Amino acid sequence: MLSTNRSGFAVMNKERTAYSIQSEYIQDILEYCRNGDVIVKVTPKKIGYEVRIWISKVYKDHLIRLWHRYHPGRNIFWLNWIVRPVFAHKYGEVVYRSEVNNGS
After folding, report:
1. What pTM, to 2 d.p., does this model score?
2. End-to-end C-alpha distance for the chain, whole angstroms
3. Between β-strands 79-97 and 8-12, what pairing exists: parallel, antiparallel or unpaired?
4. Is residue 72 classed exposed, middle or buried when 0-12, 13-18 and 19+ CB atoms within 10 A define those classes?
5. Which partner from 4, 31, 39, 47 sits 20 to 30 angstroms from 23, CA to CA?
6. Would the CA dihedral through 21, 49, 84, 58 be positive or negative?
7. Is 60 helix (H, G, I), strand (E, B) or coil?
8. Which secondary-structure segment (H or E) carries 49?
9. Is 42 exposed, middle or buried (0-12, 13-18, 19+ CB in 10 A)?
10. pLDDT per position as a tens digit, 15-67
11. Is the pLDDT of residue 104 over 80?
12. For residue 74, what pLDDT is reported?
């Protein structure tokens, strides 16, 4: 499964209605593509923002923190908040088609 903000490839059925596996590298999923399945490009698409707000005590040296290099959260005294983008995957063009095996 891909992280929400990473691009890669996915093995899908030939109607492109469902996928079975995703990976950043096409070599990892080639063996899972069989019986008419296709491999498509997967790209992240920003669909909105997530806002989380909560109240909790903080350490005295962090009573007001509006920017910090390693922590995405912001706070003023006991009010804390985080704003993050939300991504979904967009399935693009077909890059590989497997052959149908009749079982004979």
Report:
1. 0.68
2. 33
3. unpaired
4. exposed
5. 47
6. negative
7. helix
8. strand 38-55
9. buried
10. 888 888 899 999 988 888 888 899 999 999 999 999 999 888 766 666 666 66
11. no
12. 81
**Structural element, H or E, at residue 27:** helix 26-29
Give, as one character, the DSSP assignment of residue 72.
-
Separation between Cα atoms, residue 50 and residue 37, nearest integer Å: 35
List residues bridging with 35 in a β-sheet: none
Query: pLDDT confidence of 76, banded at 50, 70, 90?
Result: confident
Taking the C-alpha atoms of residue 32 and residue 10, their distance in angstroms, rounded to an integer, is 10
C-alpha distances out from residue 41 to 11, 36, 70, Å: 9, 17, 32
Amino acid at 103: G
Cβ neighbours of 12 (radius 10 Å)? 21
Predicted local distance difference test score (pLDDT) of residue 36:
87
Domain residue spans of the chain: 8-97
Any bridge partners for residue 10, and if so which?
Answer: 22, 40
